[in-house]
Amino acid sequence: MSAFKTVRGMRDFLPEEAKMMKYIEGKARKIAELYGYKEIITPVVESHELLAAKAGEEVRLRMYAFKDLGGRMIALRPEFTPSVARLVATTLRNEPRPFRLFCMGSLYRYDEPQQGRYREFWQSNFELMGSNKPEADAEIIMLTNSLMETVGLKNCVFKLGHVGVLRGILSKEKVDEKTENEVMQLMDKKQYDDALKLVEGAGVSGKCVATLRKLVELKGGRIFEIIEKMKKYVKSYEKAVDAAENLQEILKLVLESGCEIDMTVDAGFSRGLEYYTGMIFEAYVPELDIALGGGGRYDRLIELFGGEPTPAVGIAHGIGRIMMAMQRQKTLKTGEENRVMMIPVKSELKGEALKISQMLRDADIPVEVEVMGRKVTKALEDADRRKIKYAIIVGEKELNEGAVVIRNLMKREQSTVKIEKIIEKLESKS
Predict the structure, then answer these.
(1) 421: which DSSP letter?
(2) How far apart are the C-alpha atoms of 377 and 368, rounded to whole Å?
(3) 339 closest CA partner among 364, 359, 362, 372
């Protein structure tokens, strides 16, 4: 018995799960098409410098980083946004704006494996680059809602905030960027007391600490009331007021679009990536306490990579996490396919069995041919165990009359059918 196991934090997807993952990916592609996003494919390996530039301490420490044989420092991508920003800053720099770009694939972070968190994980990623208007932010929220609805998830809740509120306060209080980032990191982990201690240590006014303390407590589903309170709390911080108004405008557009989205606003909400500059949000379902997707606005990243100043907003959806949520909610309707097992009664009839199989596949009917040399009864038991719906038994007597026996394994019925009528019979769902 070999002792080989998957590397810690990696996982295998067995056929049933792989099918579910591909189902979700297919839905994400469909959404991309409906919203006008073009797919791009970027490398799994990027330069360490690119990925580390604005990821945030948390992500930087967890990158799979190594030297390649040419002595270059490289890393496996922990997220998609830097790769997309690199493309927009270089190859695509002269293309007309906005860019609506979509990518899908595996990402790598050396996190502590736990429920819903693996070191290799899959995301569908949507970026809308070139617009600083609230309707761009609203589109990313609506598109995420469309995906959650399309895969059949129920009771999805969107948690929203705005990085500009906290950053507006801290920058007016002359907190340096490094400390500001550390404060945001702590808030992302909900370590609010530590975050406030850090702010106090940076020599800010008492008013600032009091304001932050009130914001951290402020959250709820009456979104416009919450935003009014936010504006009142931060009224002496002009940039923070602008940020709250921007969030208000985005949410107003989402509601006007007629989308039925359950939204809550959390004034002390922060996300772990340093490059966010505006609205941020995450999507949840009640059955799972981890975000199924998260994103927000980042207006300075492309400039950082040497591109033109390009405002941008994006979202990453966790495909494995959406799968977990679907499993919890039992939402996946695996359509009952007309799978067929083709069983030749004896060796000499194999060629004929293959020929009929090919005819069915040409008509888009999935067929598995019995290749284990089993007797008919054993082959039927096997087909039954694997939940195959039909068995086609190719026997000499029937073949002489240009026919086969079709057995419906669900209903335990069988009939003799002419070869040219097989497809019609299978498609009539009998």
Answers:
(1) G
(2) 16
(3) 364
Give the C-alpha separation, 324 to 316, whole Å.
16
Please name the amino acid found at residue 19.
K
71: left (phi over 0), alpha (psi -120 to 50) or beta: left
Question: Mind spelling out the 3-state secondary structure of 250-285?
Answer: HHHHHHHCCCCCEEEEECCCCCCCCCCCCEEEEEEE
Nearest to 399 by CA among 357, 342, 353, 367: 353
Q: Is the peptide bond before 78 cis (omega within 30 degrees of 0)?
A: no
Residue in the block written with tokens 């208007």: 133
Q: Is the pTM of this model over 0.70?
A: yes
Distance CA 403, CA 392 (A): 10
Return the H-helix or E-strand segment holding 359: helix 350-362
Amino acid at 304: L
Task: At 422, give phi and psi (nearest 5°).
Answer: -60, -50
Quickly tell me which residue has 């959806």 as its tokens.
Answer: 317
| 3-class DSSP assignment, residue 158 | strand
For residue 108, the SS3 value is strand
Q: Give Cβ neighbours of residue 358 (< 8 Å, ≥ 6 apart).
A: none
Give me the tens of pLDDT residue by residue for the chain, a chain 430 residues long: 678 999 999 999 999 999 999 999 999 999 999 999 999 999 999 999 999 887 777 788 999 999 999 999 999 999 999 999 999 999 999 999 999 999 999 999 998 888 888 999 999 999 999 999 999 999 999 999 999 999 999 999 999 999 999 999 999 999 998 899 899 989 988 899 999 999 999 989 999 999 999 999 999 999 999 999 999 999 999 999 999 999 999 999 999 999 999 999 999 999 877 889 999 999 999 999 999 999 999 999 999 888 999 999 999 999 999 999 999 999 876 555 779 999 999 999 999 999 999 999 999 999 999 999 999 999 999 999 999 999 999 999 999 999 999 999 999 999 999 999 999 999 886 4
Q: Could you give the CA distance from residue 394 to residue 16 in angstroms, rounded to a whole number?
A: 30
* Strands 390-394 and 340-344, bridge-based pairing: parallel
The domains found in the chain, sorted by start residue, are 15-329 (3.30.930.10), 340-427 (3.40.50.800)
- C-beta pairs of 227-235 under 8 Å, 24+ apart in sequence: 227/251, 227/265, 229/267, 230/165, 230/265, 230/267, 233/267, 234/165, 234/168, 234/169
